[in-house]
Design goal:
It is built from nine helices and no strands. It is elongated, with a radius of gyration of 29 Å. The two termini are 51 Å apart. The chain has two domains: 87 residues; 93 residues, no CATH class. Helix 2 packs across helix 8 and helix 8 crosses helix 9. The longest helix has 50 residues. It is mostly helical.
């Protein structure tokens, strides 16, 4: 598929987008663009070419660093699951074949004389049933996890960036409502000064500065947060967003 075909296909999908969906897509693309550019700049700086240029190689390496790790992990997990499935089924199959061969070779087979064998066969059948049931549960659990990731999107660094963008947007909207110029409402420094004056609670101001710091570390240094650390920052961001939304509604 050439470039024109791809563009045509994308445009057909875009025709179905609601305005809010289109805006969300644009913001996501911008986030990816910014992440790749910043990582490419870091790579170029390490190669001591960052002051002069960012090359195609830097861009490709930055893109791979974003997506390759997850792809490789998914592949390794799938290979491991397939291998364990094959080993388990092969072992159970050999056991069942062995039991049938034993029964065939011993025509005078009687339950009371071969109780151990009967118990072993029952155990094998139980393993089969248990294994199948476990696989179904695992698949259901994985589907549920994927659904939660799509629905809530709480498990990657993009969420911190998204929250910060929303804080900036709310600050910009408030500035316009209070008579600031368009240039002022688009300047990050002016927005930060404005928000510092609007957020009367000092703890909110401290948390906002913490969010900006971690947002910059994610974008410019490729910083990865731990699960609890990420959740803590998300909760701080949500508190600030709630306050700003209240100010916007009351202004």
């Amino acid at each position: 598929m050439d470039k024109l075909d791809k563009i045509s296909k994308i445009e057909k999908h875009l025709e179905k987008f609601t305005p809010s969906a289109e805006q969300a897509l644009e913001e996501t693309v911008l986030e990816l663009y910014e992440l790749i550019v910043n990582r490419a700049n870091l790579i170029a700086q390490k190669g001591q070419t960052g002051d002069k240029e960012i090359s195609l190689r830097d861009i490709l390496e930055a893109k791979e660093s974003l997506f390759k790790a997850k792809i490789e992990k998914d592949k390794a997990d799938n290979r491991r699951k397939r291998l364990m499935t094959v080993i388990s089924l092969t072992g159970a199959l050999y056991s069942i074949v062995g039991v049938f061969i034993y029964v065939y070779q011993n025509q005078d087979f009687a339950i009371e004389k071969n109780l151990g064998l009967v118990i072993a066969l029952t155990g094998i059948v139980t393993i089969f049933v248990g294994f199948t049931y476990t696989q179904l549960l695992l698949r259901k659990h994985e589907d549920k996890q994927q659904e939660n990731v799509i629905k809530y999107s709480l498990n990657d660094e993009f969420d911190i960036i998204k929250r910060w963008q929303l804080i900036e947007k709310l600050g910009s909207n408030l500035m316009i409502k209070k008579g600031y110029t368009n240039n002022e409402s688009k300047s990050i420094n002016d927005i930060l000064k404005f928000l510092a004056s609007e957020l009367k609670n000092e703890s909110h101001n401290i948390e906002m500065r913490e969010l900006l710091t971690i947002r910059n570390k994610i974008l410019h240094e490729g910083y990865e947060l731990g699960k609890h650390e990420r959740q803590s920052y998300l909760e701080k961001a949500d508190k600030i967003i709630e306050v700003l939304e209240g100010l916007e509604n009351n202004s």
